[in-house]
Structures are given as C-alpha cells and as structure tokens.
Amino acid sequence: MSIMVYMIKVSLGIFLFYLVYRLVFRRYTFHRFNRILILASGVGAFLLPFFEMPADTMEVRGINEVIPIDWNYIEALGTTVASEADQGVDVQLPSLLVLAVLGIALTRFFLLFYRYMKVVRTFSGGEVRKERGIRWIVHPEVHSPFTLFRTVYLDRYTAELTASVVRGHEEVHARQLHSLDLVFWEVISAFLWFNPFVFLFKRLTRENHEYLADEVAQASGQELESYLLAFAGELARKHDPVFASHFKSSTIKKRIIMLTNKKTNQNKKWYYLLFVPLTVFLALAFQQPVEEMAEEVPGLRIQSGVNSTVPDWAGNAAPDRLPLDEKFRDQVSLDYGWKGKNPVTGEEMTHNGVDFRAPLGSTVYAAGNGVVTKSEFHERYGKVIVINHGSTFTTLYSHLDGLEVSIGQKVAAGQRIGTVGSTGVSTGPHLHFEVRKEGEPVDPSDYY
C-alpha cells in the first residue's frame, strides 16, 4: 500500500466517522463518551487501512460488490503523470505528493512548536502556585484564562474576582489533560492538512472539552445561575493561542444551551455501538479486491488452466521469444534462482525471474501468444502485466513504466505490450520477467 492510497483511506475514514458523529452524537450530553469516540475516530482512521483479512471471504466479496473500490487502480492512476520516454522525462506523482505533504507537515510542526515556545516564554516569570498537582500561573500578559496540560494561566482579575468559577472550570481541563487531545488532532492535521474534516474534528474536540469542564465544574456545587453569570464577564475577553483550553470560547452560546438542556436519556448510550458496524464496514471496504491478493509471497496470484480461458488460436505452446529487443539479451542484472537480501527491503528472498537492464521507455514484447489476465499496479511489482498462454504457461512482466494492453485482450508473440520502467519496489529502470509452468516458477532463460 502506497502512502497516497493510505492517506486516501485515512481521509475517507475520518470523513465517515465525522459524518456519523455529527448526525447522531454531537447533541448528546454523554460528554465523556463523546471524548472517547472522537479520539477513537482519529485512531481508527489511521489504523484501519493496515487491517487485513483473507480476500476471498464472503464479507470482503460482499463489500467489494457494494463498494467496488479498486485500490490498485487508484494507485496506478497516480503513478505516472507524464512520461516522455524519448526525452527520458518521468514525473512520478506519488513522489511529488509525498514531498508536498511532508514539507507542509514539517512546516506546521515547526509553527506549532514555535507557538508553544512563545507562550512559555511570554508567561515565564509570573506568580506560580502549585495546588494538588496543578500549577497555577498568574501573569499580567494573560488576557483570558487558559490551560496547557497541567498548567493553568490566569490574569490577575480572574484570579482575584472570579476564582471560584473559572478556577474550577480550568482545573477540570488540567486534571483531564484535554491538551493531549488537541495535540493529537494537531499532529493529524499537520499530515492531513488538505482534509477539512480533520479541522472540524479539532473544533469538535475543543467544543466537547468545554462541555466536559462545564459539567464537572457546575456539578461540584456551583449554582447554575452564578456559573452562567461568569460567562457574561468573559464574553469580551481575548483568546490565547496554541492547543489550549479556554474558559471563554466561541462556543459559549452552545455551552449555555448544553448546560440548560435536559440530559440525554441514559438508554441512548447503546447508540454508541453504531460505531462497531461502521468500523467493520470501513475495514472491509479498505481490503484489496479479491483478485488482487497475492498467492505467492511477495508476488501475484498467477493462474493457469481451467480458471483462465484462452482462445483456441493461442494454443498451449510455451513462450519462445525474448521480451525485449535482441540487443538486451545479455543485459541480465539478476538471474533466476538467486537467493539473498532484497536490495530495497532487506528481506531474504529467492528470485523467481530474470531482471534485464534497459533504458526507461524501452519496448516490452509478449513472449508468446496468449490473453492478458492482469494489467495493473501492484505494491511491489509496480505496473505489471500477466499473460496466460494456455493451460500450462503464464508470463509476468513487471516494474513497467507504461501498460499498453488491457485485461482480456488477445496478444501475439512479439506484440508490444508496454515499456520498461522502475515502478513498485525497484532500484532503477529494468524489466523483471517471469515464466510460470502450471503455476510454479521456472527458469525464463529456457524459453527465449
């Protein structure tokens, strides 16, 4: 799974989790449940793409029929934006996207760290008090009370006049470490800066923090009337930056409504179980299509015989020609049967084919008559073509730059089917060529 496909899956998960939360749970007064649900949505969206299950199960088949998302096709769609073999120009979209995402993410991390350090420097030297594990800082530069982790920043006016209300509210933020939730969403938004639903989740997080603090602080003995009057004294006060929790915020109207509304019926807690089928649905939808799953590790399922129909004209002859121009016959960079560590992944492997060195864009030919059974993108093989030559033989051509045939197309020996590339797990332009006899790899040099 490429980074591009992974980020698409994460973004889709965040969108669906947000939609369900917004439509069903946002107005519920189970604020602790909502906090868990919001955090679980972010964690689940990032972890679900890694979940794998056998692709031929009925569940995966059913989901693929309802939502036929071909993740390999999406990956292949963005593999090459432009390729001009004659000029040797090859622009890889995933590489550009990854660089852009990482560049903006690093910039956002730097700005976040800068803003945090600015707050620490600005409010250093204030009056510091420690009470029951909470650090309280009273500083003249503070314009409105806010909390960072287990430190509460207060202005002199708030500390002296409204301490009983504001201090109780901010203490809840500190004890429940609401800043950690905000840091979590700041990290996600740094990587998924292009997804607006991440920022909406971040807003929901702040909103729910205020509901939680209001609920706990007001329930601790504070009269509702005096608690609401404290809002009036804070309406014109200024916010402070970074991932802080504030007593005064843009959600004051919503907070008042939430405090004065009737509590949600306890029986509705069962509704939170709706997230279980949603999570299962996403996990299944993120699976690769059934026919894309590998049978040979780390290769593709390459079938021959009754499961693949080959017209009579193709016969059942073995492939008999070089898949490249004759001048590349001796340009073998890795022989069949080689055993050792993969130069890219470092994994122990047995080489089931022959690698030919060839310039990017060199023509690749069909090694024999047959029918194309695969023409797609594979995570490790890159752009790959598989040709069935009858009930006995299949050939595979991988790491291609261009795919010029489609699934089901009849091809003749020597017909151009694609061009040499360096897609998938590759160290440079080359053709990886395999021959399978009754599904088992054999030495390709015996067939050209």
Radius of gyration: 30 Å
Into how many domains do the coordinates divide? 3
How many beta strands in the DSSP annotation? 19
What fraction, in percent, of the residue positions are helical?
Answer: 25-40%
Shape: elongated
Distance between the termini: 34 Å
Q: Helices and strands: which structural class?
A: alpha+beta
Which spans of ≥5 residues are poorly predicted at pLDDT below 50?
54-68, 76-93, 289-300, 303-314
Q: Enumerate how many helices there are, as a single number.
A: 12
- Work out the oligomeric state of the chains in this entry: single chain
Itemize the secondary structure elements and their pairings.
Layout lengths: L2 H23 L5 H17 L10 H9 L4 H7 L4 E3 L4 E3 L1 H30 L4 E5 L2 E5 L7 E3 L2 E4 L1 H6 L1 H13 L2 H14 L4 H24 L4 H9 L12 E2 L5 H9 L14 H11 L46 E3 L4 E3 L6 E3 L3 E4 L5 E3 L4 E9 L3 E7 L4 E11 L6 E2 L4 E5 L9 E8 L2 E3 L6
Parallel strand pairs: 4-6
Antiparallel strand pairs: 1-2, 3-4, 5-6, 5-7, 8-11, 9-10, 11-18, 12-17, 13-14, 13-16, 14-15, 15-17, 15-18, 18-19
